[in-house]
Hints:
By secondary structure, the chain is α+β, with helices and mostly antiparallel strands. The chain has helices at about 5-15, 55-65, 90-100, 120-125, and strands spanning about 30-35, 40-45, 75-80, 105-110, 115-120. It is built from four helices and five strands, in the order H-E-E-H-E-H-E-E-H. Tetrahydrodeoxyuridine binds near residues 45, 54, 88 and 92.
Amino acid sequence: MRAIPTNELIDIAREAREYARAPYSNFKVGAAVECANGRTFTGCNIENSSYGSTLCAEQVALAKAVSEGARGFVRIAVIADADRPIPPCGACRQVIFELCGREMEVVMAKLDGQFEIRKASELLPAPFDQTFL
Ligand code: THU
């Protein structure tokens, strides 16, 4: 079920991007994750002077959602000021696959609203997952 039009989910991610803390890269990222019931959670990147402690926008949105008891994620939009739709980094692909499953839709957007959609299984075709554990 898709309760929210794609452009509205992108708009929500774009607003969240305004809160990005990116003093080192100046690369602001916003994210919005949608649950099957239409509830949304937002995230932005939060950089740290100890660079490895930086949080990606997608993981912030998913951490907020999971920690508030949300489940059943269907889409996540991610947006940045780039000349092509921004794909999630490798670590985010792993987290998205783990928490949202292979059918999760990832909406990758530019600031002007142009977007591409890929499933988690396309972005991470050979996942490490719980079947190995
Ligand atoms: N970043 C994200 O927030 N999500 C991604 O999927 C790619 C990278 C952030 C991390 C860092 O603050 C900045 O973009 C530059 O790497």
